[in-house]
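Justification of resources, computational component.

The compute hours requested in this renewal are based largely on the per-chain cost of generating structure records like the one below. Each record pairs the submitted sequence with a full structure-token output. That output is archived, and it is also reused by downstream analysis tasks.
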Amino acid sequence: DQVRVDTKNTKPKPIKKRSSQNFRCACVGKFGIAKKKIMPKFSTIAVAALLIASTTKNVDAFGSLPSFAGGVKSSSALHMSSYPTSHKDVLWTPSIKTGARDTEIGPITNYCEDLYQVMRRKTRTVECGPIKFGSEHPIVRQTMATTNTADVDATIEQVMRCADKGFDLVRITVQGKREANASMQIREGLFKKGYTIPLCADMHFQPVIAQLVADAVEKIRINPGNFADGRKDFEEKVYESEDDYVKEREYLFDSFVPLVEKCKRLNRAMRIGTNHGSLSSRVLSFYGDTPRGMVESAIEFADICRSQDYHNFVFSMKASNPLVMVQSYRLLAAEQYRLGWDYPLHLGVTEAGEGEDGRMKSAIGIGTLLADGLGDTVRVSLTEDPEFEYEPCNQLAKMAEARLATNEDAAARQKAVKTYVDTRDITKYERRSGAQPISEESDGVNVERFLSPFGSVISAVTPEMLSEENIKYFYNELGCKTAVGMPFKDLATSDSIFLRSLPPKENVAARTALRRLVEVSTGIIVPAEELEKDPLPYAVALMDLDEAIEKDGKLPEGAIRLAVTIHGTEDDATIAKVKDLKPMVVLLRTEPSISNLHASRRVFEIFKSNDIDTAVIHHYQTESSDSNDLALEIGTRIGSLLTDGDGDGILVEQIGQKQHFSLDFLRKTSFSLLQGCRMRSTKTEFVSCPSCGRTLFDLQETTARIQDATGHLPGVTVAVMGCIVNGPGEMADADFGYVGTLPGKVDLYYGKEVVKKSIPNDDAVDALIDLIKEYDMWVDKETEEEEEEALTAAA
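The structure output for this chain reads:
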């Protein structure tokens, strides 16, 4: 008997032999439409011989026959007369540019199953060895090996560790024939150790090698940007018409069809994986560096697969920029709905980085899409060993599964949201920009920096933080610079603070500290009932919306501005009264009994329909005790709203008896969220690949050195790429690139242009600094003494 084993080292379980009668041929017409079924005739001896071969050699006995999902087979002879053999015979998806798609199929209507409940998008099942992708199956957790694939033993050991950790699939790099041959040994070695965890070969530039490695692994990942177009270049092509663009499909078809045929024959899975930074020069020239270009590139390759009646594939639309990534996936899902396609989606933010920042960026992109019900497999790309990717990957998948309306509690929260009409346009990103405070003569202080137009961070503060011995550290934790004991706002200083209770007026040191913060334009938001008991000059009084309406917005003594809290349970007319109250800011803190995502969307829809431009800060309360979990929570719950352009900042408040995180950590985490959502840049942005078998230097060590040397340059983006595949291919958003090209050698890029070549690793970080200086984007780090001298002079 054949045997199947779990992805971990468990006892083999016998499975039922397949009958030869299960194998049927589908005679498929030119456009992939089955016309009739033909039963191939095999002698009993031939069938027996084939079955014996399949069980003793661990290969598909019907290897010469194309294998359909579900065991359907067809002969190569039938293929030659049934499927397109030229790009001219393919039924290509109608053009988006000419409007033919809208005319022939109709406009885009939806991008997810339900706008008001979280339902998984319905997909077909894609088979990949012992696992299955699709809406009828659990979300697949996957990662990528960082070992040199040619090192068979090391790769086997790492894949086993990943399987033991809980991963369902591991991707390995395949650069050439040597790695393709090693893949076969890795697969066999894993089988011998009792591991059937499927392997995916990551392919770039090598169509022939892709065919070779299909013999060894269960899945092939191809990148439409470089599979047929060769080495990455940014040469601009000029197309006089769409006909000129379409003519170049010939070489795409010719180079791709042999792999499609083989994957079909062996029942291998495939991922058509488009990357924002590695679109071909052909697509870049015609569609630009856009989500639309990413989607159209993938659709072309899918059209070729479909022309051969091959459907065992998934899509991905990765980008290092979460906003681009989210828009691309949503656009692809919308096109699939329009075209009647149902292929699963692989989710990932490429080159997310490391630590909380990497987890935050992944949560913003992946969590947003999972909240839409999109996504069937997840990979969190971190610049860490692959085993460390499991926890965030698994946590995001579990959060998504808990949010589904198939769960009674989740369904109740989503149904509890009052009725509204969702008018978001997922084909473009437009940020709602809330109004900024305007100073008046009667204020006595400058209120204009209480909020930031690029996204605000409000820090929750307790009276204990304002004790006399803590005040100096308190300023630092807010991100202030200090001179002679006085605080000054810096680039990443909290814009305002939130105090649930005030230190008594008798606490002179605490009250002085608050006054000094107000003097440097830091807002102090305090509940109105607290201010009524103990007034604080220049405060912002916070009221629930119902209370503010009842009091007609009247402020307590000493307060100069109003803030209101909206809980999401108010009726439309009540929320619309915000326009008359004219508060400085709304704190949006939805009730636990309703869905935060849908209730928040409803509030923004009411604001839009009533032309309310008040700034909205997402007020997030947490009892989390783990920093990584907190990053995933905030990235998913708040990032999913900010990626729609809904929100002007964040306030993170710890609740419960114990405060697990410092004020400084929560401030930095909040700024990381805003930077990840492309709102406010307060530090150098690093686009760092997660390492793989192609990496030509110690990526984690090198990234740490570069971060230490250049991490003080807000507004500058530096890409650290381990090989030529990722650089310049996947660093389209970067100002500067640090790319491994040869062992021990690095190329440096400015934008998409290589400007320095073959720099020894030991000299490359200094050369990168020189390059940043050359383009006038360098600022020297100030010492504490220099900072204090400058601030004292300014004061």
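The longest strand covers residues 559-566. Confidence is low (pLDDT under 50) at residues 1-81.
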